[in-house]
Design brief:
By secondary structure, this protein is an alpha+beta fold. It has two helices and 17 strands. The longest helix has 53 residues.
Length: 262
């Protein structure tokens, strides 16, 4: 008698388990793709926002270094309130909002072992640009911060105040101040001044203000070799001041005649 061989196959349970595994794997892959697309969108928005912020920073830098009326730089003669916190949509990408702010930045000059640093009060501006946008129901933003320095201006003249002739009693003192101006007769801030006495028929001592080198005090007395002080003799002298920017760009200013009387 012939035996009938049975054919083996998948049971219904095995098919259901396989389908469950396939569906689960497919959902995981789709979720990963969705997450990758969302992350890519966030990155693309962030990159675009950074480009917009950098463009705004360069706009402000170029504005500061251009001349307002053909002669004076916007850095010190322009209207910085144009970039003082006003919100505006980017022209090319209106879904991004740009906010630019600027602040006076106090800084210090470089110094060596032979010189002391001094405070720069009006030569540096801190510029902050914030770009905001909405994505996925959330507010996002990036902020760029940079510093813009005053364009180089060379001194054309130095004025000393008081400028006229002065009379001082021996042993007494006179206060002086100096201001450097560029070729457009605009005051140059944050310059370093060096003061000297120009002896003629008399002499004296000039003391520089340690907090502000543009100020000094002339004393109608001088220090002798042994360290003692002596009143200046009757006669005349002057005070001179030197201002320098770079190694070869310098100018001098002079006071009027200082007459020392006993």
């Amino acid at each position: 008698m012939k035996q009938i061989k049975s054919k083996k196959g998948f049971t219904l349970l095995e098919i259901l388990v396989a389908m469950a595994i396939l569906v689960t794997t497919t959902l995981i892959v789709l979720r990963m793709i969705d997450f990758a697309c969302a992350s890519s969108a966030v990155i693309n928005k962030s990159v675009l926002a950074t480009i917009i912020a950098e463009k705004k920073v360069e706009e402000i830098r170029n504005w500061a270094c251009s001349r307002a009326d053909g002669t004076r730089y916007n850095f010190y003669a322009g209207n910085w309130s144009l970039y003082n916190g006003t919100l505006a949509a980017d022209l090319e990408h209106p879904d991004f909002t740009v906010k630019a702010e600027n602040f006076r930045q106090f800084s210090y000059s470089p110094a060596s072992n032979l010189t002391s640093p001094f405070e720069l009060k009006d030569s540096v501006r801190k510029v902050q640009v914030k770009v905001s946008w909405e994505q996925g129901g959330a507010n996002k933003s990036i902020t760029l911060v940079t510093y813009i320095g005053e364009p180089l201006r060379l001194p054309a003249k130095v004025e000393v105040t008081p400028s006229g002739a002065q009379t001082v009693n021996a042993g007494e003192q006179i206060s002086f101040s100096a201001q450097a101006y560029d070729a457009n007769n605009e005051a140059i801030p944050d310059m370093v001044y060096k003061w000297y006495v120009v002896p003629e028929t008399s002499n004296g001592t000039v003391i520089i203000d340690p907090a502000d080198s543009s100020k000094s005090v002339f004393q109608a007395r001088y220090q002798q070799a042994d360290g003692t002080w002596r009143d200046s003799p009757a006669g005349n002298c002057k005070v001179s001041v030197r201002v320098r920017r770079g190694e070869r760009n310098e100018d001098w200013g002079y006071s009027g005649e200082i007459q020392i009387v006993p």
